[in-house]
Design goal:
The complex is a heterodimer of chains A (205) and B (692). Chain A is mainly α and 205 residues long. Chain A has helices at 16-49, 60-63, 66-92, 96-126, 135-168, 172-204. Chain A contains 6 helices and no strands. Chain B is globular. Classes of the chains: A mainly alpha (205), B mainly alpha (692). Chain A binds chain B through residues 23-25, 27-28, 31-32, 34-36, 38-39, 42-43, 46, 49-50, 53-55, 57, 131-139, 141-142, 156, 160, 164, 167-168, 173, 177, and chain B through 149-150, 214, 218-219, 221-222, 225-227, 252-253, 255-257, 259-260, 264, 267-268, 271-275, 277, 279-283, 286, 290, 293, 634, 638, 641-642, 644.
Chain lengths: 205, 692
Amino acid sequence: MTQAKHPGLNLGATHPEAHESSETPAFGFWVFLMSDLIIFAILFAHYVVMQDARAGGPGPEELFDLKSVAMQTALLLASSFTYGMVSLSMKHHDRPAPVMLWLVVTALLGAAFLGLELRDFASMIDEGAPPQRSGYLSALWALVGLHGLHVTAGMIWIGLMLALLALRGLTAQIKTRLLLLGLYWHFLDLIWIGILSVVYLGGLA
Amino acid sequence: MRTDPIFGRLDWSVTPFDDFAADPSLNEFVATAAAAMVPLGALAVIAFLTWKRLWGPLWRDWLTSADHKKIGIMYIVLAGVMLLRGVAEGAVMRTHQVTALDGGMLSAEHFAQLFSTHGTIMIFFVATPLVTGLMNFAVPLQIGARDVAFPVLNQVSLGLTAAGAGLVMVSLVIGKFGTGGWTMYPPYTGKAFSPGPGVDYWVWAIFISGIGSTLAGLNIAVTIYKNRAPGMRFLRMPMFTWTALCTSIMMVYAFPALTVASAMLMLDRYLDFRFFTNDLGGNMMQYANIFWMFGHPEVYIVVLPAYGVFSEVSATFSAKRLYGYNSLVIATMAIAVISFTVWLHHFFTMGQGANVNAAFGIATMIIAVPTGVKVYDWMATMFRGRVRLSVPIIYLVGFFFLFVFGGLTGVILANPTIDYQVHNSQFLVAHFHNVLIPGVLFGVLAGIHYWFPKAFGFRLHERHARWAAYLWFAGFSLAFLPLYWLGLMGMPRRAASYDNPAFEPVMWVAAGGAMLVVAALLLTLWTFYSSARDRAELACPLGDPWDGRSLEWAMPAPPPPYNFHALPYVKALDPFTIEKAEGTPYCAAERYEDVELPRNSALGLWIGAASGIMGFAMVWWIWWLAALGALAIIGGLIARAFVTDTTRTIPAAQVKRDHMAFLSRVRRARPVDRDKETAPANMGLADPEVPA
């Protein structure tokens, strides 16, 4: 068994059983992500359709703070990099400590991202732009908010993996789950790039 | 509206019982009697289980089982229960309609609830679980797998579907269901015009069960991709598995649209979002768009597995290789793809302009072509075959006549100019019943009769089942074909009353048909009962009562929990037929190995119950209970992550012992040829018909 049997990172230098056992979960999780992608795709399409449905309410020019958005982007991309470090330390060090360390860094970056996003949401409410204000704002909040919810779920998952790592160490099962969590985390990055391009940059272009 | 911190907007005035006490009319009597059926039915089941001391077996062997066969059967039982209610509602509506000239026995609101629940139930809680159940049961057996890819996720899918079905059932007793039809178009179903809990029942039932269906599709698709036996290449898969693959991929891609549509409606209703409202930039066309992005593929999601059943049935009961296997595969894939490009034909009249309508109209007509290919392939399979007119192939023949008619009216409706004339009329009601009943229901009934002996080890009574099939044909034809005529006369769908006396006699015919449909359903139930009663004389424990062609027929009936004593090596299509022709079926394996199976788990039940409770609490604004339900779901998932001991091992020695016992029973049995297929002598060992 030399070739990788799933489209993910090697789970260890030579660990054929781990490859075997993670093949189906990894593939299944890809399918799940594609299904999730449909949800985002529909919300993106809806956002584009509703761009002019402002009903006299505020639009991108008044609402978007590109500096904050740039910081959120930087934080999230950095967290994807640190998750890459999670995967690498899982592969090269067969002990949980470095993996846990990078997971904690990832979670901190994720929390900082969420903090900034929540601050933006709060200021939008202050500026009279809650989702109830217009069809456009409903679409905006739904799309960006769903991404934020996904990041929150990812944080809970990271916490769960930290607990499991502390309890059990790097078992094959936990390695598989870290692989899936990695797919999930990078997927959220990808969605964010879409939001950055379509919502923020597209809205101000 | 008044809300209580503990009970939300729930109080004693929500049941129909006190409405009946206040106003003892026929309308309220029907509502009250229907509402009484739910607790009475539940009580009867509880009493029966207690009396027969079945709680333990029910818990151990079914509710917590992760066995795909059990889960498949539970899906079908759930759908059967919901079918009873759906058919009963249809019969009540037809009865109402004969009285509906300038009035009618039911109130308009009651009638609207009836067509809304009827459609919701039939699509989401009958058709979808029926095909999901069949796929769950048959696919792993057909591809040589020991279970699905994610057995516990499979439980969760079933739990979520059952939770949605439970919410619709509860709505009968507590509160009222929405009146917006099964599609629940806003803005009518938005907060401004439907503030009550009715639409919320729909929203939560659909949201919860839709996620379950997405996960079920994912599971089956991954199973087919990853769990096929060695040698089972894609073009060696049985046709039913092919249709299951296409359906499950479609479920993965189509159901998210439903989840989004229902979640957006939810946000509009609970948090005053402006997705689909009339004011502040809301746009209901987006609902129609997103809903039908799911809705149209859904039609093919439920019909493709039925096509798969017909493919299996036409080959098996004609003792002939399936004609045009490759063309059927291509046609199935074509349907799966094109079905995502036709959704707009559901609202040609809603103003998107002639060119857009033309494009979607043409796509809609094109999708009839692969369907036509399939019909010809099945007919060619039967042509010069050694056809036995058993129940499954009787359904196929009925399908040929009735479904093709429905498909042709679909081509008529695909023309936007004609659609403008008959849109929202009874013509449409006739059309979609004409494809869904002969297509999906007949296909699934054929599949149930076909695989029932495999699942339970005894056949169904042929005579009763044949009469039931003929009754279904007659009942369907009388109940729905006249509606084409009514539609062309101008009668709108969903009309609680009408003022044209010319409609009335046709309504009588349709009502007569509805009674025949009820009779067909009862006779079908009686078939199950009488067959279970006479199971000794119908027994076919050796598992091959129909001279089957694919892997599932080579194992005993019911199959052992691990399905295959050893993973088969598949060399061609119809492997079992080839083995029988070569004289090498029923061989001992060279080597028996330990088998790992998923352990029982209560996770599916837990998630299902928690989401049902959460949905109910959200409908009634009982926020604390909803939060508790949500926490229970998350907690259940987290707790599951800490479980390591998820499999049990069946030792090789036991697998070998079971298989040897089976083989010696096969050696002692007398093979039965096709003339005696329905005789008690048919123990499930076939004397093979002409090879391949």
